[in-house]
Amino acid sequence: MSEHQETLAPQKERTQEIIRRLKELYPDARCSLHFTNPLELLVATILSAQCTDERVNRVTATLFQKYRTAQDYLSVPLEELEEDIRPTGFYKNKARTLRRCCQALVEHHGGQVPADMASLVKLSGIGRKTANVVLGNAFHRAEGIVVDTHVKRLAGRLGLSGQTDPEKIEADLMRLVPQEEWVRFAHLLIYHGRQICGARKPKCAECVLADLCPSAQEEEKRFS
Ligand code: SF4
To answer: Half-sphere exposure of 123 toward its Cβ, with a 13 Å CA cutoff?
Structure first.
């Protein structure tokens, strides 16, 4: 075992325990966006920026009846697509991203969503977060860990990463979390972030991770 691996060992053990407890608490933790194929998940993930998953699901319930292929997003006037996704907010930007993304799918991937990180992040407006969501949940491939606002906040509070840049946080988490748990781990932190470790007032007194969390007392004091 290298010196670096040795220093990581206690952190890895603590991370395993965090995962064990969260799995017990949220046995059904999974992606809350509704989709039936990779294209739908890609679209839903683009629409979920600055929007709740519930609202996205309400919009996509009808959207996906009308737009079934990547080409469908290119076949309507831009204004019509904007109107169809308007309730998700930032609809002008999102419509442009959808168009550019679907254009690339049609031109370079036969209209299909590619199943690898390198090709996904080359699509317009797609970063590692969206790519990880699609790879992990539509293709069941763990190439990285989704770092959204909840994962970012909890990784910091739980002392799993001291970084602020999502890609650096992801790299820290990939060192600590076993690869077979990468997809589930993000869901677990997202569930915990929504239910207990909220941005404004974490409920440390109710938290099953309190004895493992370096921020427990600090956060309680700050918000009491
Ligand atoms: S102890 Fe508090 S800060 Fe730590 S994970 Fe739980 S709710 Fe969040």
So the answer is: 35
Count up the domains in the chain and report the number: 2
Verify whether ligand 1 is closer than 6 Å to residue 204 (CB atom): yes
Residue 52 lies in a domain: yes
Residues labelled catalytic? 129, 148
Domain span including residue 176 = 3-29+145-218
Q: How far is CA 39 from CA 16, 45, 139, 182, in A?
A: 33, 10, 11, 22
Half-sphere exposure of 103 (CA within 13 A, CB side): 10
Q: What is the pLDDT along the chain (224 residues), one digit of tens a residue?
A: 555 555 889 999 999 999 999 999 999 999 999 999 999 999 999 999 999 999 999 999 999 999 999 999 999 999 999 999 999 999 999 999 999 999 999 999 999 999 999 999 999 889 999 999 999 999 999 999 999 999 999 999 999 999 999 999 999 999 999 999 999 999 999 999 999 999 998 999 999 999 999 999 675 566 55
Claim to verify: residue 44 and residue 124 sit in the same structural domain: yes
Residue ranges of alpha helices (H) inside 26-52 are 38-47
CB 130 near ligand 1, within 6 Å: no
Of the residues 151, 154, 213, which should be mutated to test ligand 1's pocket, given the most ligand atoms within 8 Å of the CB?
Answer: 213
